[in-house]
Design goal:
Layout: E1 3-5, H1 18-22, E2 28-32, E3 40-44, H2 54-58, E4 64-66
Antiparallel strand pairs: 1-4, 2-3
């Protein structure tokens, strides 16, 4: 199963996102995007992702589900 973001639950803040730090393969990435309400978004690099689920377990907003 791959991680999937529930955008309405995600605060999308690079400095507070524990999922970014939890990923052993650096597959969780913050991207600056001025079109987003908070100025950025969390995305997944599925080529790097090994589907371990650590990002979902550490997400402080419970915004990541494994699907």
């Amino acid at each position: 199963m791959k991680p999937s973001l529930i955008k309405r639950r995600c605060p999308a803040q690079q400095t507070m996102c524990r999922a970014i730090l939890a990923c052993p393969r650096q597959a969780v990435i913050y991207i600056v995007d001025e079109l987003e309400p908070l100025g950025g978004k969390i995305v997944f690099d599925y080529e790097k992702c090994d589907e371990c689920g650590k990002c979902a377990a550490e997400c402080c907003g419970q915004a990541i589900e494994m699907r």
